[in-house]
Design goal:
Layout (H helix, E strand, L loop, with lengths): L1 H21 L4 H8 L5 H12 L6 H33 L2
C-alpha cells in the first residue's frame, strides 16, 4: 500500500518536471508511469473468484485491489498538489 502511494507521488512529481521540460501535457508522462502499478492481478483474482473460485474471497480481493488503486490515485493527487504549492511559492 505504502509502496504504491510513494511510487505514485514520485511519478506525479517527475511527470510534472518532464512536462515542463518538454512542453507537453502531464498526462503523457503520468499514464506510462502508473501503468506498471495498476493492480491487474487483483482484478483478475476478483473476476476469477466470482466466476470459478471461492466466492468468499471476492471481498478480500476487492478490498485489496481497491486499496491499492486508491493509494495510487491519492499519490498522484498529492504529487500534483505538492508541485502546485511549490511553484506557487517560488513564482510568487
Amino acid at each position: 500500500l505504502m509502496k504504491n502511494f510513494l511510487a505514485a507521488v514520485a511519478v506525479a512529481l517527475v511527470s510534472q518536471a518532464m512536462a515542463r521540460h518538454f512542453k507537453a501535457p502531464v498526462i503523457l508522462f503520468v499514464i506510462p508511469g502508473i501503468l506498471p502499478m495498476v493492480p491487474g492481478a487483483g482484478m483478475y483474482r476478483i473476476v476469477y473468484s466470482i466466476v470459478m473460485g471461492p466466492e468468499n474471497m471476492v471481498g478480500t480481493y476487492l478490498l485489496e485491489t481497491a486499496t491499492a488503486a486508491g493509494a495510487i490515485a491519492l499519490g498522484i493527487f498529492l504529487g500534483e498538489a505538492l508541485q502546485k504549492i511549490f511553484f506557487y511559492e517560488v513564482h510568487r
